[in-house]
Amino acid sequence: MEMKDNQFQIELKEDVAEGTYSNLAIIAHSTSEFVIDFVRMMPGVTKAQVKSRIVMTPEHAKRLAMALQDNLMKYENQFGEIRMPERGGYMPGGTFKGEA
User: Radius of gyration (Cα) for the chain, nearest Å?
Assistant: First the structure.
């Protein structure tokens, strides 16, 4: 990362720019960090893979939550309310504490 006059440039490598699909996030925390595992679950498959793990400080986790909330409001203002399907789907157990 390169800084110039309170601005910085962010490099986005081609393989990262493609993105990684995830339809489940599992969140854990300690006193000093939050861990978010991004998982891809497929219908009819009982084993899922963690595709990416992000570790951040509690302050950055709160900033992320605020940024997501802000962007969700902007999205819904532009495209309409995001409707949530009934819980369960192909999720084993259907318990969603700490999961997104």
Answer: 17
Q: Dihedral sign, CA of 74, 64, 17, 91? A: negative
Cα 31 from Cα 53, distance rounded (Å) = 18
Where does the chain have alpha helices with state H?
14-17, 58-79
CA–CA gap between residue 98 and residue 27 (Å, rounded): 5
Kindly tell me if the per-residue pLDDT of 94 is higher than 60. no
What's the pTM value of the predicted model, to 2 decimals? Answer: 0.74
Most distant CA pair in the chain: distance in Å? Answer: 52
Tokens of 91: 């999720």
Average pLDDT over residues 64-93: 85
Q: How many CB atoms lie within 10 A of CB 29?
A: 13
